[in-house]
Design brief:
By secondary structure, the protein is mainly beta. Helix content is 6%, strand content 44%. Strand 16 and strand 17 form a beta hairpin. The longest helix is centred in the N-terminal third of the chain and has 24 residues. The chain starts with 19 loop residues before the first helix and ends with a strand.
C-alpha cells in the first residue's frame, strides 16, 4: 500500500507560518489514511469506491470481497446509513433493493475523528469536509452533523467553509454551541440571538450552562405574530440561579425580554452588574420584561441589583411566575412593575414573588391588572441606604461608623465587596441609622479606614405592595418599612375591586399606614398589622394601622388583628370588619367616618399611654361597633371611650372594664344613636353613659360604679332594661339643658347604690311628658328612689317597686 506522508502545512515564503488548526488537520488526514488502510487489512476487504445512500438503491454489480464507503447519509430498504459507514456485499451481484442476506453494514461512522476543544476551535477549523451527515464534536459535549455546502440550515460554519448543524442535549440546545461566551469577557447578545433563532427553527429548547453571560443590548425571545397573539413553543433552562447568571453592562433597556406564548424559562439569575452591586452606570433599566406570555412559565429565577424594574409583567395570561427580586427598583420604577392596566395585564395566572429590599421611592410591587390571578408576595425592606461609590478605597466592615463630608453620619449595615475584587471599579456602601442628609459628590470615610466618593444613592423608602385591578386573589406579607417617604401611602394598598385577600400582613417597625383599602367589594380573610411601636413620644404622630379610604365601599374583612400599632380609620361606606383584635393598641382604636360600616366583634387592649379622646369614634350615619360583642380596655382614654356621633350609630354588647381617665364610658350625640347590651365598669366620679342624642337609646346595659350610671340630656332619650348599680350620685339622671319631652326610663333594675347616692332616677325641671315606669328601685334608697323636683309637667311615674 502507499505510505501516507505528513508535511507541516505553512503559509508564506519569507517567514513561513503555521497554525494549530492547520497542523491538526494535516495530522488528521494522515490518521484517516492509515485508518482506511488498516481497516482494509483487518477485514480482508478491498475498497470498491464511494456510495451515496441517498440514491435509494444499493450499488449494482457488487462483488464479494469489496466494500463501499458511504459518502452521503440515507436510508435504503429501511436501513439507515451515516457518512463513514461501510456497505459490504455478501454475495456477488448483490440485490440493489434488498438488504437481508445480500449486504452487511460496518458502522464505522461511530468512530469519531478529531474532537475539538470548544466551539471557537470548531469555527476556526481548517479541516476539509468529512461528508454530508458526518459527525463533529468538541470537548464541551456539542455534537454536530455536517450538511451540504449549499445548505442554509446550519448553526456553525468552520473557517474551511464546512457547515454544521448542532444536536440538542437532554435539556435543549446548549447556547455555547453558538459561540456564547460563558465567562462574561465579551457580550453574548449576538451569539445568544443566533442560538435562539436556530433553536426556534428546530423547535428545540435552549439549555444555559453554568457561567456568567454579559448582556449589552438585551436578549429578545419574541414569537411570531398570529391572529390571537404571539406564539412560540420553546423555552430556556439554566443550571440554577447561583450558577447561570446574566449581567448587564452599559445600561441596556433590559436584560431579558419574553414576548411569546407557550414559553417556559427557569433556573437562572439576572443582575445589574458583574460585581453584584447596584451600579447605575451598568444596570439595565429592566431585568426581565414579560409580554404576551400565555400558558407559559417563568420560575426558579432571581433578579438582583437592577436600578429600575427587576421584573416587569405586561399581558401575562394563564401562566406561572415564581422567583426572587432582590434590591431592585428606583425613584421611577417599582422593583416588580406593571404598566398595562387592561384586563389582560395579568389574567388567570399564578404569581409568587419574594421581593426584598426594594430601593427607591416608587415602591416594591405594583399590579395594575390581576384578573382571576393569584398573587403571593413576601416583601422585606431593611432600613438601609445604598450608596454607589466611585474610587473606593478599603472595605468598611459591618458596624463601622461612617462620616460624610457634608456632616451626615451613619453605621455600616453590611460588609460589601472589597474594592480589589471589583471589575467595573464602582463600589457600594450600605448604611443604616443615617443622621443628616447626603448629596451626590460628597466624600466619606469609615472608622476602619475605608473611603470614597458618593456617586448615587437610594433608600428602601417606597410602599411595598399596590394592587389596582379587579378579581384577584392575594396573599401578601410585608416586613419592615421604616424609611417610607410617603406616609399616606400604605405599606400594602388594595386599590382593587371584587378581589379576595387571603392574607395581608405587615410586620416590623413601620411608619405611615400599614394597610390601605381604596377599592370596592373586596373580601379579606385576614389582615394583620404590627407597626412595631414602642415609644409614645416618637409614635404619637404615626398613622393608623389600617385605612379604608373615602372612596372605598362594600369591603369586608373577616379578621383584622393589630399589635403594637395604632387603630383603624374607616372613611369609606359600608365597609365591615367581622372581628377586630387589637393588642398593645396605641391611641385610637376605631374611627368610623363613612356611613353604614363598622365592626361586629371587637377585642381592644389599649396601652396606658398615648392618651386618646374617643378611642372608638362612630361619626358616620348607621356606623356600628361591637354589635356581636367584645371587650374594650381603654386605660388611656379621655373624653369618652366610645362616641356615637353619627345618626343611628350603634354600639353592641361590649364590655368596658377599664375606661381610664374618660368622663364617660359611652357618649351618644347622633340622632337615634343606640347602645345595647353594653357592660361598663365606671371609674370613680365618672358617668357610665351620657345620652345627648335626640331619641338616643340605651337598652339592656349593665352599668356599675361611678357617680352616675346614665346621664340623659335630650328629647326622646330612652333608657330601657339592664341594670345600674354602685353609683354614688344618681343612677339615671334626666337633666336636659332646655325643656324637652318624651324621655323614658323603663324596666331598669337599680341596686347596690353607693355611699352618697341621692336617687335611682331623677327627672330634672326641664323634663316634661316623660316616663319612669316599671323600674326596680334600689332598696338602699327607699322612698328617694325616684325624684321629680322642679316644675316639669305631664310626667308619668308608675310601677316602680323597691
Amino acid at each position: 500500500m502507499a505510505a501516507p506522508t505528513y508535511r507541516l502545512p505553512v503559509t508564506g515564503s519569507a517567514h513561513p507560518l503555521t497554525s494549530r488548526a492547520a497542523h491538526e488537520a494535516a495530522v488528521q488526514a494522515v490518521a484517516d489514511a492509515l485508518y482506511a488502510e488498516l481497516g482494509a487489512i483487518a477485514t480482508g476487504l478491498s475498497p470498491a469506491g464511494n456510495w451515496d445512500a441517498a440514491s435509494g438503491t444499493f450499488p449494482a454489480g457488487a462483488k464479494r470481497g469489496g466494500y463501499y464507503l458511504v459518502s452521503a447519509a440515507g436510508t435504503v430498504d429501511e436501513q439507515a446509513f451515516a457518512v463513514g459507514d461501510w456497505l459490504v456485499p455478501l454475495v456477488n451481484d448483490a440485490s440493489t433493493s434488498s438488504f437481508a442476506g445480500q449486504w452487511a453494514r460496518g458502522e464505522y461512522s461511530k468512530v469519531v475523528k478529531r474532537v475539538y476543544e470548544d466551539v471557537p476551535a470548531l469555527q476556526a477549523s481548517a479541516e476539509p469536509a468529512r461528508g454530508v451527515g458526518a459527525e463533529w464534536r468538541d470537548l464541551g459535549g456539542h455534537v454536530c452533523r455536517e450538511v451540504a455546502p449549499d445548505s442554509e440550515d446550519y448553526l456553525i460554519r468552520t473557517s474551511a467553509g464546512v457547515k454544521l448543524q448542532v444536536a440538542p442535549g437532554p435539556m435543549g440546545l446548549v447556547v455555547t454551541a453558538a459561540g456564547v461566551d460563558p465567562t462574561g469577557a465579551v457580550a453574548c447578545d449576538a451569539a445568544f440571538n443566533a442560538a435562539f433563532a436556530y433553536a426556534r427553527s428546530k423547535s428545540y429548547g435552549l439549555a444555559l450552562p453554568p457561567g456568567r453571560f454579559r448582556v449589552e443590548q438585551g436578549l429578545d425571545f419574541i414569537g411570531s405574530p398570529t391572529v390571537s397573539g404571539f406564539q412560540i413553543r420553546m423555552g430556556i433552562r439554566g443550571a440554577g440561579a447561583q450558577n447561570t447568571v446574566f449581567f448587564s453592562h452599559g445600561a441596556p433597556d433590559y436584560v431579558l425580554r419574553i414576548d411569546a406564548r407557550y414559553f417556559e424559562a427557569s433556573g437562572f439569575a439576572i443582575t445589574g452588574s458583574i460585581d453584584e452591586i447596584r451600579d447605575t452606570a451598568h444596570s439595565a433599566k429592566i431585568g426581565i420584561w414579560v409580554e404576551n406570555m400565555r400558558q407559559g412559565a417563568l420560575t426558579n429565577f432571581e433578579v438582583r441589583h437592577i436600578v429600575g424594574a427587576g421584573l416587569r409583567i405586561d399581558r401575562c395570561i394563564v401562566s406561572r411566575i415564581d422567583g426572587i427580586v432582590y434590591r431592585c427598583g428606583s425613584d421611577t420604577a417599582h422593583a416588580v412593575d406593571q404598566t398595562v392596566a387592561d384586563q389582560d395585564g395579568c389574567q388567570a395566572s399564578w404569581v409568587r414573588i419574594n421581593c426584598e429590599d426594594a430601593h427607591g421611592s416608587a415602591g416594591a410591587m405594583r399590579f395594575l391588572s390581576h384578573r382571576n390571578t393569584h398573587l403571593e408576595a413576601k416583601l422585606e425592606n431593611q432600613p438601609y441606604w445604598i450608596f454607589e461609590t466611585s474610587a473606593p478605597v478599603g472595605n468598611a466592615a459591618r458596624e463601622a461608623t461612617v462620616s460624610f463630608s457634608g456632616g451626615a453620619t451613619g453605621v455600616v449595615a453590611l460588609t460589601n465587596t472589597d474594592p480589589s475584587n471589583l471589575i467595573n471599579g464602582n463600589g457600594q456602601l450600605t448604611v443604616k441609622d443615617l443622621v443628616g442628609a447626603v448629596t451626590v459628590g460628597e466624600t466619606f470615610t469609615s472608622s476602619d479606614g475605608a473611603s470614597g466618593t458618593v456617586k448615587a444613592f437610594t433608600a428602601a423608602n417606597g410602599p411595598q405592595f399596590w394592587a389596582g385591578g379587579d378579581y384577584g386573589t392575594f396573599d401578601i406579607y410585608a416586613n419592615q418599612n421604616r424609611l417610607k417617604a410617603d406616609l399616606a401611602a400604605g405599606d400594602i394598598t388594595f386599590a382593587c375591586s371584587d378581589s379576595h385577600i387571603l392574607k395581608g400582613q405587615v410586620r416590623g417597625p413601620h411608619v405611615g399606614y400599614g394597610v390601605v383599602i381604596t377599592g370596592q367589594r373586596n373580601a379579606a380573610q385576614l389582615l394583620y398589622v404590627d407597626q412595631g411601636l414602642t415609644d409614645v413620644a416618637e409614635e404619637a404622630s404615626r398613622y393608623d394601622a389600617v385605612l379604608f379610604s373615602a372612596g372605598s365601599a362594600n369591603n369586608t374583612v373577616h379578621t383584622l388583628r393589630t399589635r403594637n400599632a395604632k387603630g383603624v380609620d374607616n372613611a369609606g361606606s359600608r365597609n365591615r370588619i367581622d372581628q377586630l383584635d387589637q393588642t398593645n393598641l396605641y391611641g385610637r382604636s376605631y374611627r368610623g367616618q363613612g356611613n353604614f360600616g363598622g365592626v361586629t366583634y371587637a377585642n381592644v387592649q389599649q396601652l396606658a399611654a398615648l392618651a386618646e379622646t374617643s378611642p372608638v369614634n362612630l361619626q358616620g350615619e348607621g356606623t356600628f361597633f361591637g354589635t356581636g360583642g367584645g371587650v374594650i380596655e381603654a386605660p388611656a382614654a379621655t373624653g369618652e371611650v366610645v362616641l356615637l356621633a353619627g345618626a343611628r350609630a350603634r354600639l353592641g354588647p361590649v364590655q368596658i372594664p377599664d375606661m381610664g381617665a374618660a368622663n364617660y364610658g359611652v357618649r351618644l350625640t347622633g340622632a337615634d344613636a343606640l347602645v345595647q347590651g353594653a357592660v361598663i365598669a365606671v371609674a370613680a366620679g365618672k358617668t357610665g353613659i351620657q345620652n345627648v342624642a335626640t331619641r338616643g337609646r340605651v337598652l339592656d346595659c349593665d352599668i356599675s360604679g361611678g357617680a352616675k350610671g346614665v346621664y340623659a340630656r335630650n328629647a326622646g332619650c330612652v333608657i330601657r332594661g339592664g341594670s345600674v348599680s354602685g353609683y354614688t350620685s344618681i343612677g339615671v339622671h334626666c337633666d336636659p339643658a332646655a325643656a324637652v319631652t318624651g324621655m323614658r326610663v323603663e324596666g331598669v333594675i337599680f341596686h347596690s347604690a353607693g355611699v352618697g347616692a341621692t336617687a335611682d332616677i331623677q327627672l330634672a325641671a326641664n323634663v316634661n311628658k316623660s316616663f319612669a315606669t316599671n323600674n326596680s328601685i334600689a332598696t338602699e334608697l327607699g322612698a328617694t328612689g325616684v325624684v321629680v323636683p322642679g316644675s316639669g309637667s305631664g310626667n308619668i311615674i308608675t310601677q316602680n317597686a323597691a
